[in-house]
């Protein structure tokens, strides 16, 4: 019997859309992280990548505030994923983008997390303001430009996995999208 090649590990497998297209399924992006740590300080690695990042927490929770907290990373993920998804959506819609400015404000109740009270430790509310430079100005009437931008923003929120994670978790989610001239 001929030796068989070892199957690639999860971290080595590249994103392949060919088999998924043939089967009618959506392609999936395999993601894997690994972490080590002591106390509240943790180092997170992504197998096969050259970068790592650290997470800690606030002193009130026993941390040293030596690195961003997981709750800060969750909001940063929302900001970054909105921009990345916006890039993909803009490409699909033929929109040219310039700079982004994303501000996220959120309220996290701490009674369940800190003192063990009954309740939901999830975010209470998240408000996002996204200012995006686009080439939509000057391409039609003001109403047409506004409609194209609204469609773009709606598609970004629909297709962004992190936005959907927040929305589907029951968080009171609000967003304001501002179209700025490129």
UniProtKB/TrEMBL annotation:
Q: Which residues form a coiled coil?
A: none
Q: Which Gene3D superfamilies match?
A: 3.30.300.20
Q: Which Pfam families match?
A: OsmC (PF02566)
UniProt protein name = OsmC family protein
